[in-house]
């Protein structure tokens, strides 16, 4: 929920800070900390003036009075700083999360200084002054309380998020990614999610599967029997074809850590983590996906793509091929080039200085996998094998 383009809780923090500042000005500047009537004549006094009934500046204040004045002035300055920084954070420098802590620190500091001044006044002032305190004394206490509430509101407001697609990012990008996230979540009819009240963060709840991940299995076995690879791939292809045909989603995030086993028997494998998935045949943030996907999984069309790029299900066969190769040889794609910087590695892939074919031919594997992997790794997406054709070939293969 937003008010004038500002998230609700941010707006509440702003209002509390403004009110606290106004009340504090009235409180520490007014000559109404003390009020008493003598023989029908009103006598009143504050931190700066004494009126009986004419007002005069307080001259030669006692040391405790100077301490109270100093604390209240510092409290006012902290409140003013908090308001200015909060306005900058909400309207000018939205992505500077450090400002949040400046605001919180200033609000807490203001409350501390104000209350120290109040305590000094209550402890050191003459008995007559303490017994006849008036509204200005109460006002500064109220201002301190409002400052604390505003600080707590700012602290607990969930305006931070992780940069990505299952969560969100900061500032103006947040609304863009939130919409992308909700599009993917709704397309797969996923129910166990919740958005916070500011619409800046998505919370995902998933079932815990006791079988661990495909990555765990590979770490314990190094590589898998081709028959087991076939069995897993057929299940995975069922899932990804469903994403393509029924949900209009391109999966993309083909890491072994995203493949989950239902139970310790490890017969049933599931796809998880749609954090880098994108809608098919639709514009998406190519630059973000390019930066977020590991080079070993990034299809050439994304590496070379611009903002007008639209993906189809064939794109997923590149990443699926990378994961299949890892299951068969126990190493990720581009393992031998892992010492390269990411930009250099991407450039070598784009210029075809290195090719997936070098990994296929270096390792012994059934001919079917030589064939399908060669077609998975076609740089030209028009020549690449599709998921349905890949599934059919694997179904018809029998290991001798």
TrEMBL record:
<dbReference type="InterPro" id="IPR011009">
    <property type="entry name" value="Kinase-like_dom_sf"/>
</dbReference>
<dbReference type="GO" id="GO:0005524">
    <property type="term" value="F:ATP binding"/>
</dbReference>
<feature type="transmembrane region" description="Helical">
    <location>
        <begin position="73"/>
        <end position="92"/>
    </location>
</feature>
<feature type="transmembrane region" description="Helical">
    <location>
        <begin position="12"/>
        <end position="34"/>
    </location>
</feature>
<dbReference type="GO" id="GO:0005737">
    <property type="term" value="C:cytoplasm"/>
</dbReference>
<keyword id="KW-0812">Transmembrane</keyword>
<dbReference type="GO" id="GO:0010506">
    <property type="term" value="P:regulation of autophagy"/>
</dbReference>
<dbReference type="InterPro" id="IPR045269">
    <property type="entry name" value="Atg1-like"/>
</dbReference>
<keyword id="KW-1133">Transmembrane helix</keyword>
<dbReference type="Pfam" id="PF00822">
    <property type="entry name" value="PMP22_Claudin"/>
</dbReference>
<keyword id="KW-0472">Membrane</keyword>
<dbReference type="GO" id="GO:0016020">
    <property type="term" value="C:membrane"/>
</dbReference>
<feature type="transmembrane region" description="Helical">
    <location>
        <begin position="99"/>
        <end position="123"/>
    </location>
</feature>
<feature type="transmembrane region" description="Helical">
    <location>
        <begin position="135"/>
        <end position="152"/>
    </location>
</feature>
<dbReference type="InterPro" id="IPR000719">
    <property type="entry name" value="Prot_kinase_dom"/>
</dbReference>
<dbReference type="Pfam" id="PF00069">
    <property type="entry name" value="Pkinase"/>
</dbReference>
<protein>
    <recommendedName>
        <fullName>Protein kinase domain-containing protein</fullName>
    </recommendedName>
</protein>
<dbReference type="GO" id="GO:0006914">
    <property type="term" value="P:autophagy"/>
</dbReference>
<feature type="domain" description="Protein kinase">
    <location>
        <begin position="102"/>
        <end position="400"/>
    </location>
</feature>
<dbReference type="GO" id="GO:0004674">
    <property type="term" value="F:protein serine/threonine kinase activity"/>
</dbReference>
<dbReference type="InterPro" id="IPR004031">
    <property type="entry name" value="PMP22/EMP/MP20/Claudin"/>
</dbReference>
